[in-house]
From TrEMBL:
Entry's transmembrane regions: 331-348, 360-381, 393-413, 447-468, 488-512
Name this polypeptide is given: Probable ATP-dependent transporter ycf16
Record Gene3D superfamilies: P-loop containing nucleotide triphosphate hydrolases
Organism per entry: Galdieria sulphuraria
Listed GO MF terms: ATP binding; ATP hydrolysis activity
UniProt entry keywords in alphabetical sequence: ATP-binding, Membrane, Nucleotide-binding, Transmembrane, Transmembrane helix, Transport
């Protein structure tokens, strides 16, 4: 699978001969820039030997975490090359890469369940088999220093240090060839940290794996040994063997740096309404405007504009639909339906604050397929109108279905963004455990779908109790028997529930891809605050 590994020639400690060793990773001219061009990392060259330990240090904001996140492609370099075991990182399948290079974040993600369930997630993701999990569990817990007696406990009962060790144990169960730990001793005391790092070093030597650690503790350096990389303002300012540096004049510089870092976080039967009657009804709006003015709420302009727009829009729609009904041509009905769908798609995407790639197209597909197909099926098979596009039935039903589909699309889009933002650590932790994007985003997807479906469920719970629904009211005002109107409304309740669910599910499935790159990286630029 691998190309011939890259090699490095390093002098033996006595300086008299040379030993050729393979590289676990090699970075050449690696830079990371923001969208505005600011450099987070600048021209980093870094080689780490297979089976070695490498420690990354630097002040807060120096780019340490960003650097190690490049190693399993949770983040992408703007320029330069990265090789893992001699193969360009972009040639690796993301799942295979993340089986080789396992990253544990400083604040690990753990689900609100038991310790054992948090460990078993790698089996559910299909990363390792259950038998291999059971065979290696005890050793992984021992290396991480985690008590086996806590397996049945809730993670909520664990201390910060126990949570970190649990996450390390989970990573060890993957048998990584490169284990990357971001501040693994930040919640441990001095003796606990020393013992923990010694066990990790022993595991590294036994497995010939590579260990990369970000640390802010000076004491950790002497325990870990290996190679040292110091970053400052995104640049590599110091590289070499850790113990050699600590025993040189540069050792004091490192000590001061870490000391500072450790402190930083026709007739229908309806009663016609004359213009005079509408003007009389408008008196209620005028009274509302007067009351708002007297209370000095400052909303007079808004409510006046709202009333004006409602009047113009509804009258225009009424006369347009009258023309459609009289014309009674399928092309005209479909034109009206197309306008509804277009406005719904535009409105749904406009409500989403963050500009997601492909949102307009994906919303259009979901809304058109979900509401369009549903409307046709209802008129053709449920009501059985002849023709199926009879505008007197098709367009009112389409309006209700498309309107609810629009709301569902907007809600699921917003909730997906919100859930992914709040669960970013969880998602990237799952990606680091070799989860696919779909597996990693599944909890956020479910939460977003639940939120988008709750209004529909609540509507079914209270329909007819709090107020009479719009369609039922309209039919009764038009002279329909209340029992007939109730059956029509019940049909609408069922149809709307199905249509909104279809739109929400299809859009969430289409949309979650927008949050990931082709290399299975979370597109964090989409999650930044507006």
């Amino acid at each position: 699978m691998f190309n011939s590994p890259s090699e490095i020639t390093t002098p033996l400690h006595n300086g008299s001969s040379h030993l050729t060793l393979p590289l676990a990773l090699s970075l050449k001219g690696v830079s990371v820039r923001t969208r505005t061009g600011s450099e987070i990392l600048s021209n980093i060259d870094w080689d780490v030997l297979q089976g070695a330990t490498a420690v990354v240090i630097g002040p807060s904001g120096s780019g340490k975490t960003r650097l190690v996140r490049l190693l399993n492609r949770l983040d992408e370099a703007s320029s330069g090359s990265i090789e893992i075991f001699g193969l360009d990182i972009r040639q690796w399948n993301p799942r295979q890469l993340r089986r080789k290079v396992v990253y544990v974040a400083q604040t690990p993600y753990l689900s609100q369940s038991t310790v054992l369930e948090n460990l078993e997630i790698i089996c559910k993701l299909g990363v390792i088999t259950k038998s291999l999990f059971e065979r290696n569990l005890e050793e992984a817990l021992e290396i991480a220093g985690f008590q086996k007696t806590l397996l049945g406990h809730s993670v909520n009962t664990l201390s910060g240090g126990e949570k970190q060790r649990l996450s390390v144990a989970r990573a060890l169960l993957l048998s990584p060839e490169v284990l990357v730990l971001d501040e693994p001793t930040s919640s441990l005391d001095g003796l606990g940290a020393q013992s923990f790092l010694q066990r990790l070093n022993h595991w590294r030597q036994k497995s010939n794996s590579t260990l990369i650690v970000i640390s802010h503790r000076f004491a950790d350096l002497s325990v870990l040994g290996g190679q040292l990389l110091m970053l400052n303002s995104g640049k590599a300012v110091l590289k070499g063997e850790t113990l050699t540096i600590l025993n040189s004049v540069e050792g004091e510089q490192v000590r001061k740096l870490l000391s500072v870092s450790s402190m930083s976080c026709p007739d229908t039967g309806a009663i016609p309404l004359d213009p005079e009657q509408l003007i009389f009804a408008g008196g209620f709006l005028i009274a509302n405007i007067v009351a708002i003015h007297l209370l000095e709420l400052g909303l007079e302009r808004d409510i006046t504009l709202g009333g004006f727009r409602a009047t113009v829009q509804l009258l225009m729609v009424g006369y347009f639909l009258r023309w459609v009904f009289l014309t009674r041509k399928v092309a005209v009905v479909m034109l009206a339906f197309g306008i509804m769908l277009s406005v719904a798609v535009w409105t749904a995407t406009r409500r989403v604050k963050r500009k997601l790639p492909g949102l307009l197209y994906k919303s259009a597909v979901s809304i058109v397929m979900g509401s369009g197909v549903t409307t046709v099926m209802v008129t053709a098979f449920v009501i059985g109108t002849d023709p199926w596009w009879d505008p007197r039935y098709f367009l009112p039903l389409a309006g209700m279905i498309v309107g609810n589909a629009m709301n569902a699309a907007a809600l699921v889009s917003e909730r997906m963004v919100s859930e992914i933002v709040s669960r970013q650590g969880e998602i990237e932790a799952l990606l680091s455990l070799s989860a696919t994007p779909r597996q990693a985003v599944a909890p956020a997807l479910r939460a977003a779908l639940r939120s988008s479906m709750i209004p529909s469920i609540n509507g079914m719970m209270t329909v007819g109790l709090v107020s009479l629904p719009g369609m039922m009211t309209g039919q009764m005002l038009g002279g329909a028997d209340p029992s007939v109107a109730a059956r029509y409304q019940l049909m609408i309740v069922f149809v709307l529930a199905g249509a909104t669910s279809a739109v929400a599910v299809s859009l969430s499935i289409l949309l979650y891809h927008s949050f990931f790159t082709s290399a299975w990286q979370l597109r964090t630029e989409l999650l930044a605050s507006e």
